[in-house]
Specification:
By secondary structure, the protein is mostly beta strands.
Length: 116
Amino acid sequence: QVQLVESGGGLVQPGGSLRLSCAASGRSFSTYIMGWYRQAPGKERERVASIDWTKRDIVYADSVKGRFTISRDSAQNMLSLQMNTLKPEDTAIYYCNTVPARNESWGQGTQVTVSS
């Protein structure tokens, strides 16, 4: 079982940047497709980015394309999400998980708030 801990969230002004990190423990996720998900208040959780183990198959949601960059360091069991040009609608709790997501692997997430 993979245990995931997200960090790096915070309060940022529109147009700002944040870098989220996800540390995995329990077992290596090196062969899994990994993704970043987010859930805004009153909305369903959505996947915003995913990356396969080769790092060649990367997919972004249209809403973040061109602004977010997902990366992984399988040797360190780390997943990252660089978020630039943040918008108020990016406000949400951000989670990492496998793709498809495993219910037992959801962590606490990290809150991102974009507001002036």
